[in-house]
Every structure is written in C-alpha cells, then in structure tokens.
Design a protein that fits this description.
0% helix
Length: 113
C-alpha cells in the first residue's frame, strides 16, 4: 500500500534552515508528482510546493515560500525533500507530504527565537 513518511521537523530560530524528507513506498515513485502542504495553527491546510514527474522536473511554489523553499526529489530513493531557508515565524506549521489522495502523518516545524 502507499505509504508516505515525513521527517526532519523541529525547532529553529528565525532565519534558520531545515530540510524535510518524505520517504515513500508502495508505488512507482518516479511516475508521480509529489507535493508538500502545511497547516499553520488555526488555519486550513495549504499548498507549499510540488515536483512533477516529467523529464523537466517542473516545480511550483506558493508565493509565500518562493525564493526560500526548494522542493527536490531522489527517484532512486523514492524520496522527496523540502529545503527550507530563511525561515520565518509564520512558517510554523505541520508539514505534510502528499501524492494525490495519499498523505503522510506530518512533521512539525516551529520557527521561534
């Protein structure tokens, strides 16, 4: 069955960096676009970034993270990453890996001094 497992969250100071990982199994990873979403406290879940499965490896970002976050994937490891730089307190959220209707359980990122 499809499984998505996020890791890499934690507490970081404003301006710091974190790299999230999502290890997947149960499907042909290279054939699917992969997404990151987040849910900030008191807010609805929102799109963060996506990585396409085509040969161009197209990426799309939410305006709020453009220029600070980078999504990339390692098809050999069936893993998608989210590199987050210059983190802000408003980036505090549970971050979720997503493929179509499948979701991981999330990893908490807290940005605070």
């Amino acid at each position: 069955q499809v499984q998505l497992a996020e890791s890499g969250g934690g507490l970081v100071q404003p301006g710091g960096s974190l790299r999230l990982s999502c290890v997947t199994s149960g499907f042909t990873f290279s054939s699917y676009s992969m997404n990151w979403f987040r849910q900030r406290p008191g807010k609805e879940r929102e799109f963060v970034a996506s990585s396409s499965s085509n040969i161009f490896n197209e990426t799309v970002y939410a305006d709020s993270v453009k220029g600070r976050f980078t999504i990339f994937r390692d098809n050999a490891k069936s893993t998608v990453y989210l590199q987050m730089n210059n983190l802000k307190p408003e980036d505090t959220a549970v971050y979720y890996c997503n493929r179509n209707v499948f979701w991981g359980s999330g990893t908490l990122v807290t940005v605070s001094s």
